[in-house]
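Record format v2
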Amino acid sequence: MRDRIWIFAGLAVFVAALTAPFWWAHAVAMPLAKRPDLVLPANQKECVVPTETMRAMHMQLLVNWREDVVRRGDRQYVAYNGKIYEKSLTHTCLGCHNKAEFCDRCHAYSGVSTPSCWNCHNEPQTRIAGSTP
Amino acid sequence: MKITRKDFLRLSGLSILAAGAKQAVRAVEQERLTKSRPAARAVRWGMAVDLKKCREKDGCNACVHACNSAHNIPQFADRAHEVKWIWTEPFATVFPFAKGSYSTESDSGVPVPLMCNHCANPPCTRVCPTQATWKRGDGIVMMDWHRCIGCRYCIAACPYGSRSFNWQDPRPAIANINPEFPTRTKGVVEKCNFCEERLARGQKPACVDACPQGIFTFGNLADPDSELRQLLRARFAVQRQPELGTGPSIYYLV
């Protein structure tokens, strides 16, 4: 038991070293990481779900909308504030957001690959010119 | 714990009684739910195609063009890669039973518009391993392209050739992409969806609206008073291969 002091001193040093990055960040004002350069819609002030939730859960919302529309034929979304939206990627989401300047930029920033949505779904802006079939 | 014979029997009796009561409550609730739904909700979408009127306008392809541009259907030069939702075939091919020696003079070469029959008993949905295709409550045989794995069992099962497979990316073969409707991707099966997306907006299918002759009568087969049912009562109609037991929802007025 004579080594008790050394053991506890060692443990204290270990815990301090382990947690150093956290308290160091609090003690010294660290510059925030650069945020993605997103272009927000000009025509709308609010999204169908508050921004914080949307940031974390938009993929789940899109999957739910997809299942509702395709498999249940349920196309109306009642938002948290009682507003009614159409459950549509092309009409509702891309009606305000620009894919290249919003979706793609944040996905590139976060290192998340482009989802397969765009293999089939179109942007409303793009109309590939050509003769009618 | 010790239990007497009398207690055991009493407990067993009570358990059986409780289980029975639960079943009864559930049955009563189910009954109430089915009663509260309005009876008018029974819908089975169907269509009648008036071949007599179609014959009057030779060489017209308005229905096919309307569908192709509404649903982003690719046009491949190679017929092996052909994708089609609505198309035409000669009468003699569609209705091989009608091979009369003299009547063929009038009908055999006449093009008949064909599409998915939205069968009452669709063989394609039975074989789909992922339920990417299924029959909706309103009779539409629906496709979920998100879920299709491209196994093509449904193509093999469909006796009407209504389904096409995307052997390659269809986008380069679409002259004018309609952004309102998704294109498909390589490796999925597609077919006529009875313009499910237009019905949801209260519109009629694209082919029905596009036909200059008004040969298509779209309506509810489950409603005896619908225009469609009245037409089917008044005129002689045939289905494609009804003997297979699929129950097609497309009727041809000959």
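The first strand of chain A starts at residue 76 and ends at 78.
The longest helix of chain A spans residues 4-27.
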